[in-house]
Design brief:
Protein Transport Mog1p, Chain A; 3 domains; 6-stranded antiparallel β-sheet; 13 helices
Length: 525
């Protein structure tokens, strides 16, 4: 990062750098002032990584320099409110810099890491904006080829969704990285036709959008594995199972995740369905529903359960069929095999604890002995428990809530895939982020414990809660939370209520936790 010091932060005699916004694998983005027009801009500096010539200039044919120029040219072709605007491209000592509009906000990936998954309405809003951006790009012959949460910015003041980073974009008629045999993009978000060495078109970007929607809704993609080889196998061969949180938007998610690009849902149809959801709260026969996303035997017309021709063609995946660049990468990492398991969750980097082995699936129902003042519930999401009388259920993916009549006390259950690190790491990560998420966060403790023989962790804290519901009173809330791994899933149960009635809240929590048992979810095959 010597450029900043060498030029006293002044680029091309015009753009004065004032601070680093972010750093990625290919470049660093700086906040800067355009001293000629007196406006704030973002300036992207290329990482040379030792590839420059002795004088610091770009050698002929250096792909990193080509990438910067291609990014600028691709972005310059598109004028759209949901695409980052290009202002200028300048060269300082032979090194190219891209000058763009400054979007004050954060990337979708940062939001997901800090606050967990967003709801279906916000996901639909983001997807509609990206569909509009992609439609504009595709009309100009530009394929983005790297749609993923880090490349989606959310403007703080307006909520505007902005697609950025066209560094691996393909422009119609121009030579691209992929034509030299190298793989570009992010494998977890890459369409199977590109993974298997086939040609890519606008439908490939739409596949990536479908993957991004899954990540926004649940914090994890259907193709996350713990090796690159596992990701490759999942994208081109494994059965696609959207996360439970995708239930309200399932027809669109399934339509975009159709492996055959000829059958994949188009941008117009996806936008029509998503706008219908925002207007009515449901897509056709789909809706918020009483439980997790179903996986019907027939699937949607866009993503049938049976294997498509494309799936048959790539059923046996070999390195010779994935393109030279990815094949080399797999070989270098020793990750040519398939496998892996999903990762990432809503409340931080939760982890897997070994726990006692589970040798059989849970029952379809389970008896629950409810003490006085409580009643037994068999929840379709896959659990049974005793709930305080008068509490009503609300499914708000990925959480199931039960609210008191005044909505000031609520209990929640989250069921998700286990993660590296264990339950204790899960709640410690959540606790570390809590001061930014919970105003007045205080009186907090996290400790390791057990729940019915399974390694677990508990978390208690107080915070200054917002007003809840119509006529609800604000004030301090006390939260009791326990997390554990069981039967191949991670369970988290918490109860929050007014600090002034902490004893009652703790009583509810103790009853809920004591009576909680796994049952078979109604959506199981």
């Amino acid at each position: 990062m010597g450029t900043f010091a060498a030029h006293d932060g002044l680029i091309a005699g015009r753009y004065r750098l004032s601070g680093r916004i972010g750093r990625g694998g290919m470049g660093t983005v700086w906040r800067a002032t355009d001293e000629l027009l007196e406006r704030q801009v973002a300036v992207k500096e290329l990482h040379m990584d030792g590839g420059e010539g002795d004088d610091g200039t770009c050698p002929a044919g250096l792909s990193d320099c080509d990438r910067t120029l291609r990014e600028a040219r691709a972005a310059a072709l598109i004028s759209h409110p949901n695409v980052v605007a290009l202002h200028d491209i300048v060269v300082q000592d032979g090194r190219p810099w891209i000058v763009m509009e400054l979007v004050d906000g954060r990337a979708l990936s940062e939001l997901l890491a800090a606050e967990g998954p967003v709801g279906p309405r916000e996901t639909a809003r983001i997807a509609i904006a990206l569909l509009s951006a992609l439609r504009a790009a595709h009309a100009r012959g530009v394929l983005h080829r790297d749609i993923k949460p880090p490349n989606v910015l959310l403007e703080t003041a307006t909520g505007r969704v902005v697609l950025t980073d066209f560094g691996v974009a393909q422009v119609r008629g121009a030579t691209t990285i992929s034509e030299t045999g190298a793989f570009v993009g992010s494998p977890e978000y890459t369409a199977p036709e590109r993974m298997s060495g086939g040609s890519a078109g606008p439908a490939s970007d739409l596949w990536s959008l479908g993957v991004l929607m899954c990540a926004a809704l649940s914090g994890v993609t259907p193709f996350h594995r713990d090796s690159l080889g596992g990701i490759l196998h999942a994208v081109v061969h494994d059965e696609i199972r959207p996360p439970a949180a995708a239930a309200p938007l399932l027809p669109v998610v399934q339509g975009l995740l159709e492996r055959d690009p000829a059958r994949r849902m188009g941008a117009d149809e996806a936008e029509r369905l998503l706008r219908g959801y925002l207007a009515s709260g449901r897509i056709g026969g789909s809706g918020p529903g009483p439980g997790p996303a179903p996986y019907p035997p027939g699937g949607s017309p866009y993503n049938p359960r049976g294997r498509t021709v494309l799936m048959a063609a790539v059923a046996v995946v070999t390195l010779a069929g994935v393109g030279a660049g990815l094949a080399v990468l797999l070989a270098e990492r020793g990750e040519a095999g398939a496998g892996g398991r999903p990762a990432q969750v809503s409340s931080g980097p939760l982890g897997r604890s070994p726990g006692p082995p589970v040798t059989r699936e849970p029952p379809a129902s389970a008896p629950v002995r409810a003490p006085e003042g409580y009643h037994a519930v068999q929840d379709p999401a896959g659990f049974a428990l005793a709930v305080p009388d008068g509490f009503t259920r609300s499914f708000e993916p990925p959480r199931v809530f039960y609210y008191a009549p005044d909505r000031q006390t609520r209990l929640a259950v989250v069921i998700q895939d286990p993660q590296p690190g264990g339950a204790a790491a899960a709640l410690r990560a959540s606790a570390a982020a809590a001061p930014q998420r919970y105003p007045g966060y205080r009186a907090a403790t996290v400790r390791e414990t057990t729940r019915k023989g399974y390694p677990a962790a508990s978390w208690e804290f107080t915070w200054d809660g917002p007003e809840v519901g119509a006529g609800g009173a604000g004030g301090a809330l006390r939260t009791y939370d326990t997390c554990w791994d069981e039967g191949g899933k991670m369970y988290e149960v918490w109860v929050a209520g007014p600090e002034a009635k902490a004893a009652r809240t703790k009583r509810h929590f103790d009853v809920v936790l004591e009576t909680f048992v796994r049952i078979r979810p109604v959506s199981s095959p």
